[in-house]
Amino acid sequence: MATGSFSKAADNLFITQSAVSRRIKFLEDQYGYSLIDRSGPVLTPTDAGRVVIEKAEKMLQLENELLQNLKVLSPKPGITFCCTPSFGVAYLPAIMRDFMLLKPDMSELKFFFEMPDKVVDGMRKGLYQVGVIEHNEDYDLAEFETFELPGDEVVFVSSPQLGLTEDELPLEKLVGFDLYTRKEGCCSSKLLEFNFKKLGKDDTEFSRIIYYDDLHLIISSVLEGYGLAFISRSVVEKQVSEGTLRIHRATGFEHAYKRTLIVNSACTSTPLQESFIKEIRGIFKKASLKTDISSCIAAECCLPLTS
User: Fold this and answer.
1) Helices marked H in 103-143
2) 247 DSSP β-pair partners
3) Given 17, 164, 200, 276, which residue has the most CB atoms within 10 angstroms?
């Protein structure tokens, strides 16, 4: 339901759209209730659907706890990976494709999307073996093995329909539009808040702020010309290269942020894990990004870490 459409859900799950439709239909037949409201442009859960989602999330949490407890008794080779959503959308499909070709017989690979704080917390709790965070804060990662990855930048993007042609714009020209963004706590939201405070302003100056928890919906809304997004450049690189989105930087804003690959030192390293880490580090050599990512690494854009 986070994606708002069967096709986008299928992309995220690496299955066909028809497979997603069949699974939903099976659940609706099994429980005897319609779980999805299909009347609007964006799919939303019905009352019964919200109940099912709530209980399913609790069941998945219990299952994860059960598996963690069983692993202590009888460890099996596998990878548990967690990253921020923007990294997952931009890079995980290619990493997964190459890694599965390299290790076709691997039986257990689990990956999760979380905010940077939760990735680090999950690493400390032993929930994940490997993680990637995109961040502005200086996290205390001394207990982990870490690798600095090429950074990125969070930029404003717009559809050509809005008529914004300049690469750099004064903030006053941007706040007249609706802003589409992810929930509070994500890297882009923190960086936006940091920049507004630095300039002595408030993000309520935007015409409206619309929160979506799904990057696909944010990009789709901006492509339709409904407003702007403040989003990771790597996520929209394809649309930018095609000319369907334009990039803008706000005068006085700091746009760069860092990426860090984290390896849980408490977990026993295996050849499988080493191969997976190698794929993550190697993806940037394969990606033909137009972003000058070296400048993003060097840029100083660190927020004070808050509890």
Assistant:
1) 116-124
2) 157
3) 276
d(CA 216, CA 235): 10
225 Cβ contact list (under 8 Å, min separation 6): 159, 161, 162
Q: Which helix (H) or strand (E) holds 260?
A: strand 256-263
Where are the extended beta strands (E) located within 67-204?
A: 79-83, 109-113, 130-135, 145-158, 168-169, 179-181
Strands 179-181 and 209-211, bridge-based pairing: parallel
Measured CA to CA, the distance from residue 188 to residue 256 in angstroms comes to 10
Which SS3 state, helix, strand or coil, does residue 198 take?
Answer: helix
Domains parsed from the chain with CATH numbers: 1-75 (1.10.10.10), 151-256 (3.40.190.10)
CB contact set of 25 (below 8 Å; sequence gap of 6+) = none
Query: In the block, which residue shows the tokens 């993003």?
Result: 296
The residues with which 258 forms a beta bridge, in sequence order, are 135
Number of neighbouring beta carbons within 10 Å of residue 104: 7
What pLDDT score was predicted for residue 2? 63
Structure tokens at 289: 């990004």
pLDDT in tens, 121-140: 999 988 899 999 998 888 99
Q: What is the pLDDT of residues 182-221, one digit of tens each?
A: 876 677 888 888 898 888 888 788 888 888 777 888 999 9
Cα dist. 254→204, 257, 301 in Å? 19, 9, 7
Tokens of 279: 């794929």
For tokens 């050509």, what's the residue? 160
Residue from 47, 59, 118 nearest 83 by CA: 118
With tokens 């917390």, the residue in question is 121
Query: What letters, b where the CB count within 10 A reaches 16 and e where it falls short, cover 290-305?
Result: ebebeebeeeebebee
